[in-house]
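Tokens in:
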């Protein structure tokens, strides 16, 4: 319980850094140089106004100087990161109980999933806000996942490689058929990463959830006639990121319940 609370608080701070990545990487700005500033009045934000969640609540969601509204995205990303970090700790400890907890393996798995979850959060919000899935997130995540699966999966490594190549080819096909209007090339690269993270058959769960939630959201937006706020098309990256997260944490349970229902 204490462990989960601490990791939630760490997640809040990591989340405020993920906000910076999700905003600056699509604009190709430096993520290290340039202090955080108000988008409107350009004033540098002091450290005591940069405390995750608390500062947003204290300032009632407004800039200290010009009172311009601060985007709700910032506290949302922080809380989502905190909650998902807590979920990772619970998930990894359950998994390691089943595999007779080896402490080194536990730490290794914990850091891998914290890194992957952070990458997925940046992809989700970078694509939602700016319509771009940054290569600077995709490539490190692909390399990390590849190395992790080599050490972790060993004999089932072909399952991960074939899932990655299969998902990538499927999205390349969609990309070519829709001439890049339905899918961006970022989605093609992201599909490869998804396969590496999930393997077979979990990749099917991830893609199914992505297409299902994407279709539902698409219908809702068409009914509300708000489709144009996203430009010509709705970005698909957020749904892929959501599908990946659901498959990581609940893939096994979902597959077991489907098999159970089929066997009835
Ligand atoms: Zn301001």
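Residues out:
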């Amino acid at each position: 319980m204490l462990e989960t609370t601490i990791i939630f608080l760490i997640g809040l701070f990591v989340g405020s850094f993920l906000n910076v990545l999700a905003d600056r990487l699509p604009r190709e700005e430096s993520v290290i140089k340039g202090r955080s500033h108000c988008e409107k009045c350009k004033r540098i934000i002091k450290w005591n106004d940069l405390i995750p969640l608390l500062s947003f609540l204290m300032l009632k969601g407004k800039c200290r100087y010009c009172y311009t509204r601060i985007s709700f995205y910032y506290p949302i990303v922080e809380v989502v990161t905190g909650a998902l970090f807590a979920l990772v700790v619970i998930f990894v400890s359950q998994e390691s109980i089943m595999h007779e907890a080896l402490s080194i393996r536990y730490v290794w798995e914990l850091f891998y999933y914290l890194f992957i979850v952070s990458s997925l959060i940046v992809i989700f919000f970078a694509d939602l806000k700016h319509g771009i899935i940054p290569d600077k997130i995709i490539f490190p995540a692909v390399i990390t996942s590849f190395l992790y699966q080599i050490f972790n999966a060993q004999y089932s490594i072909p399952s991960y490689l074939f899932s990655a190549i299969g998902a990538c080819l499927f999205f390349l096909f969609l990309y070519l058929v829709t001439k890049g209007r339905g899918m961006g090339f970022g989605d093609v690269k992201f599909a490869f990463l998804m396969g590496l993270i999930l393997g077979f058959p979990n990749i099917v769960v991830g893609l199914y959830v992505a297409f299902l939630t994407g279709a539902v959201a698409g219908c809702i937006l068409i009914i509300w006639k708000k489709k144009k706020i996203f430009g010509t098309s709705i970005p698909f990256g957020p749904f892929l990121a959501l599908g990946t997260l659901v498959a990581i944490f609940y893939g096994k349970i979902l597959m077991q319940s489907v098999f159970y229902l089929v066997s009835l």
